[in-house]
Amino acid sequence: MDGIWASDVEAGDRLVVRTQNSLYTLTALGNGVFRVAGGWFAANSLESDEVRIVGCTWGGRAILTDLVAAPGMCIEFDNTVQTTSVRHIRLFRHAASGVYH
């Protein structure tokens, strides 16, 4: 499956995810926890909350728990928020210098 797996993400990495309806920025805090900006989190003033990604679905009950984001799938967070279908993902690696690349 083409996408970003939990094992691909390290603390400090940043993902920019374009869904059908929104743009999200996910900053990895470590241990599977993210701070999410944009989309539903911005609309509900919850961008400072820390959440886990439960996994990705095709919109139904079957969930891939080790998948953070994949084109065509929806991201499901532990606060029960589910995004619309992912259109594009970009992973930016955090360097020790604080620069993303």
Please characterize this protein's 3D structure.
It is built from one helix and nine strands, in the order ββββαβββββ. With 101 residues, it is mainly β. The protein has one domain (4-92). Strands 2, 3, 4, 5, 6, 8 and 9 form a seven-stranded antiparallel beta sheet that branches.
Major beta-sheet overview:
7 strands, antiparallel
Low-confidence stretches: none
The domain count comes to 1
Helix content: under 10%
**What's the end-to-end separation, in Å?**
24 Å
What is the arithmetic mean of pLDDT?
Answer: 92
Task: Give the SSE string.
Answer: EEEEHEEEEE
Query: What is the strand tally?
Result: 9
Class inferred from helices and paired strands: mainly beta
Overall 3D form: globular
Based on CA atoms alone, the radius of gyration comes out at 12 Å
Q: What is the helix tally?
A: 1
Strand content: over 45%
Oligomer: single chain
Give the arrangement of secondary structure elements.
Blueprint: E1 4-5, E2 14-19, E3 23-30, E4 33-38, H1 39-43, E5 50-57, E6 63-64, E7 67-69, E8 74-77, E9 86-92
Antiparallel strand pairs: 1-7, 2-3, 2-9, 3-4, 4-5, 5-6, 5-8
What key attributes describe this structure?
5% helix, 101 residues, globular, single chain, 9 strands, seven-stranded antiparallel beta sheet, two-stranded antiparallel sheet, mainly beta, 46% strand
Quick description:
The protein has 101 residues and is mainly beta. Helix content is 5%, strand content 46%.
